[in-house]
Amino acid sequence: LAIARQMLEAGTLRLMFLTLNGEKAATLFAFEYERRFWLYNSGYDPDAYAQLSPGWVILSYAIQYAIATGCRVFDFMQGDEEYKYRFGAHD
Predict the structure, then answer these.
(1) How would residue 78 be classed by pLDDT, with cut points 50, 70 and 90?
(2) Is 74 part of any domain?
């Protein structure tokens, strides 16, 4: 929580929401600094929205945002989850 506050104060915190019919369907928590975008965490309610793949959608929007703002690196950070490689991550 402390790092999130510091990043918010520095203007580098990115908190994104995907809404459907006025309800938050997915959330993405990231940092952007020196043309790099670090995906820290994301999530959605699988009971309500799994069939719509909101995690894939919000991640796609985050990548589009990073490109549009001039980021040269989109860093998925640690972990070897399959979805990261589907979006082009490499070791």
Answers:
(1) confident
(2) yes
Q: What is the span of the domain harbouring residue 60?
A: 2-86
Nearest alpha carbon to residue 29 among 44, 14, 45, 12: 14
Compute the distance between CA of residue 89 and CA of residue 82 in angstroms, rounded to an integer.
9
Residue 58 per-residue DSSP state:
H
Please list, in sequence order, all residues whose beta carbon lies within 8 angstroms of the beta carbon of residue 69, skipping any fewer than 6 positions away: 32
The enclosing domain of 51 has a CATH number of: 3.40.630.30
User: What's the length of the chain?
Assistant: 91
Say if 52 falls within a structural domain: yes
